[in-house]
């Protein structure tokens, strides 16, 4: 029964995911608090390795706060958080820079919450060639679990995966 409710919750959240850009067919669009348009995703993970765009740094995502360097199973990643503080039920924004450049062939997925992804909605990174980083938007679960973190899954082209966490900023005023 738990699986049924988890699936239903995940399907409900998938309709709420948003992404910068307009490469995907969507049913609606909205302007965020920064004034640029975001298209609502249809919930499908349909980015391909060659489906890259470089507009995330051309838009104002608000203050991007550096989260520093973190080791994820031997991979040193640099991260920054945009869109302000992470809030329950709201969109979170993470920028991830890897220590190597494979021109976006690596797949980076991110979710907010706990390692087991319970009630979390993973977002897939979009590679920005001019900055050699990945731009990821995802929804925070509501309520936020205790010890909520950014969770990052790095899938290299050779099939190896690394997963680890990065502390998030919940309240930028502290």
Explain what you see.
It is built from one helix and twelve strands. It has 174 residues and is mainly beta. The chain has a five-stranded antiparallel beta sheet, with no helix packed on it. The protein has a four-stranded antiparallel beta sheet with strand order 8-7-11-12, with no helix packed on it.
List keywords for this structure.
12 strands; about 170 residues; disordered N terminus; 1 helix; 5-stranded antiparallel sheet; mainly beta; globular; 4-stranded antiparallel sheet
Counting copies of identical and different chains, the oligomeric state is: single chain
Q: In angstroms, what separates the terminal alpha carbons?
A: 40 Å
The topology string of helices and strands comes to: HEEEEEEEEEEEE
Shape: globular
Share of residues in helices: under 10%
